[in-house]
């Protein structure tokens, strides 16, 4: 059993480890390791196309996540507040982007944007269409996260607001935002991760000058894997690894804390 | 009466922007794409009137030069590769989920994170990892050549094998997590009862473990099989023309070999497959558990 666990770990981490290892390869082939070298990383720093792709990924991730958090949080709050109305169509609508196969998702956006552009001159494929598409799949995740946070709140809190004659604006400022901000931060991070991680939908909605990191890696790989591609991938893996480590440390601290409270 | 009108107004103001966004940028585009499937294609592969079912006949293999099984092969291959990958994922996930559920409580979240972390990286990057491992001249490729599975000097990709491995790699966490959730609530008394009655491990599994973990298994199967059927990145990078799947067939119709109606017909098929998967999941979830509904 233990052996099987380690074998699975090997299966899960070997491909990532190989990418990192060969990004330091002095030779140009994944067949043999010819000594340690940083030259591929050197080359990355002067690769303008790559730096642009990095910048595009960041712009896309941040702006789409900001929009999605605002509209998604409103949607989640609406779902909570009008939960007695049994809005089944709303639940279906929210799950639609989550279950849609990504190829179909991307292509339907693409055909739609192309048709709009041809007939009305709006929605020229580029970063702006990518933002529109990304927001549409981020909103449901944000809404569900905010909704689940609201469900665990004490409903009396809402009545307290009403009893104190809080105006909608004051309720937002002094109650909802302070209570929800951890959920809002978490949904921003989730939306950002979804955006950075997405390849297929970006691929179909991108314009010629809006290459993002995954698209850059994709087109580089189609010409053949090189240590340079491995180096870009290794940097992204490192970022993910740090995030994973942070999650572990956070969990560990929380566990320790909850234990020390109990005893 | 006025109260209801006021509340409806509030509802529209609060959920309006989000709902509108999803409708305009997902529902309308999908409906447009579906409608394209019922149009005919002009010489450039773009949709035009009149309405026709030609695209569906083409999807079934009836082309200008008569019937050819190419598209049906691709459909069959999607089904078979997705099924095979799902079975492999189940075979790996059962022992793993069980193992995690039997570890000390404080270790379990760590182990789950270890299972999930690789899937936080991009799909493309994960495929690049396998391309590295399967390239000609790597130890794995040499080993398979030595055992006679592949020609010497050839890599392990592009191949159906590489596609299946890539899909198993992608979808493993989607099976481990629901199975783990099922194992965590497992009633061990039933397993012990089976053992007391001298059940072989196999029979104990079938009669005591399997029924209890069935909801998790089912959820995992839908979560794995449905996206596996529509997989695009993995067959595109790790497979060649002889292992391409319906997702690739659809995408191709909107790129070089343009034929939008044919692609739209394929996309419609993928949507129907997804809805079928969800329907099965909901039906089964209702029948299996008297607990809360799956959706919300």
Describe it.
The complex is a heterodimer of chains A (263) and B (296). Chain A contains eleven helices and no strands. By secondary structure, chain A is mainly α. The longest helix of chain A is centred in the C-terminal third of the chain and has 36 residues, at 227-262. In chain A, 39% of the residues are buried. Chain B is globular, with a radius of gyration of 24 Å. In chain B, the strands form two sheets. Chain B has a two-stranded antiparallel ribbon with strand order 1-2. In chain B, strands 3-4 form a two-stranded antiparallel sheet. Chain B has 296 residues and is mostly helical. Chain B is built from twelve helices and four strands; from the N terminus they run H-E-E-H-E-E-H-H-H-H-H-H-H-H-H-H. The model of chain B is unreliable at 290-296 (pLDDT under 50). In chain B, a hairpin with a 5-residue loop joins strand 1 and strand 2. Classes of the chains: A mainly alpha (263), B mainly alpha (296).
CATH architecture of the largest domain in chain A: Orthogonal Bundle
Indicate the percent of residues in helices of chain B. over 70%
Distance between the termini of chain B: 29 Å
Approximate strand percentage of chain A: under 5%
Class computed from helices, strands and strand pairing of chain A = mainly alpha
**CATH superfamily heading of chain B:** MetI-like
Q: Tell me the Rg of chain B in angstroms.
A: 24 Å
Major β-sheet profile of chain A: none
Order of helices and strands of chain A: HHHHHHHHHHH
The total count of strands of chain B amounts to 4
The overall average pLDDT of chain A, rounded, is 84
Assembly state here?
heterodimer
Structural class given helices, strands, pairing of chain B? mainly alpha
The total domain count of chain B is: 1
Low-confidence stretches of chain B: 290-296
Helix content of chain A: over 70%
Gyration radius over CA of chain A: 23 Å
3D shape of chain B? globular
Shape of chain A: globular
